[in-house]
């Protein structure tokens, strides 16, 4: 395919102006004058024979033609930036995009990630955290590490390990707890899974309570544990993900009873062929997990 000459300066000026809806802010981003950005966009419009913006007294309004052009440009510039990032001192760097449930990221992955980087210095890992809700295709992820049953539509899932839940609290609150039944009168913090505490009470042989003193409902164990650290109540969370807090004495596990409601899984889209970076990460993370845990 023979490409016609591409007016890159004009395209870049338009893309920045469309994101900001301002020639002035686009000029700041591109380190040129406002007049230069305006002129480059005008030249592009003249070449296309179509207006890309309506010039308003206070800013810009993108036209239908501009709306049609913008996604292609934004994606193209993003892909160019990613490719340039991969090339450093003559070495091609692989990028690995991970979406990780926040509890796993902080409690397990980050303390070990330097080992992966040492073994694979030319793989750049980009980590985004979530509360176990993720759209791998929309977010452009190579892998998502999530908690659950391992059944997600259109994905291939590799089980990592279970993360049993148990009550966790400050030592001060723990002093009041003599038996699991004492928790019935305590303020219980929980996630959006409403049956967790009742399941744990059954495992601890506590008769069903007429009323549980439910506290704040959280969408992540990290936020719930922060509330527990501040003494707002008793969290039901995986001790294995908060081993540093337990070791330091900031929190305690008052009772040994645990319940397992799922596992952590390494998942990828079935439609996403594994890259060399993905295969390296999959091999590494499985090597970090004792066989008895898998």
TrEMBL record:
UniProt cross-references to Pfam families, sorted A to Z: HTH_1 (PF00126), LysR_substrate (PF03466)
Classification via SUPFAM superfamilies: Periplasmic binding protein-like II (SSF53850), Winged helix' DNA-binding domain (SSF46785)
Molecular function terms, GO-annotated: DNA-binding transcription factor activity; sequence-specific DNA binding
Keyword Transcription regulation in annotation: yes
Gene Ontology BP term (one): DNA-templated transcription
HTH lysR-type domain residues: 6-63
UniProt keyword list: Activator, DNA-binding, Transcription, Transcription regulation
Record family assignment: Belongs to the LysR transcriptional regulatory family.
Protein's UniProt name: LysR family transcriptional regulator of beta-lactamase
Lineage: Bacteria, Pseudomonadati, Pseudomonadota, Alphaproteobacteria, Hyphomicrobiales
